[in-house]
Amino acid sequence: MKKLLLVACLIVCLFHTCAAAGPLEYDVVVVGGGGAGLVAATAAAEQGSSVIVLEKMSYLGGNTIRSGGVINAVDPEPQKAQGIEDSTDLHFKHTYEGGDNKANPELVRTLVEGALPALQRALDRGLKIYPEITTATGALWPRTHRLVEPAGTGWIRVYSESAAKAGVEIRKDTKVVSLLREEPLAGRVYGVKAVDKAGNELEIHARRGVVMASGGFGADVKLRMQHNPALGPDTPTTNHPGATGEGIIMSQDIGAAVTGMDFIQLHPHGDPKLGDLTGRASDFVQKYIYVNIEGKRFVNEAERRDVQVAGIMAQPETRMFIINDKNGVSDPNIFGDHLDDLLAADRVQQGDTLAELAEKIGVPAAALEATVARYNELVKQGKDVDFGRPENTLQQTIETPPFYATPRVPTVHHTMGGLVINKEAQVIDRRGEVIPGLFAAGEVTGGIHGTNRLGGNAITDINVFGWIAGTNAAK
Question: Which residue of the set 121, 157, 304, 305 is catalytic?
Answer without folding.
Answer: 305
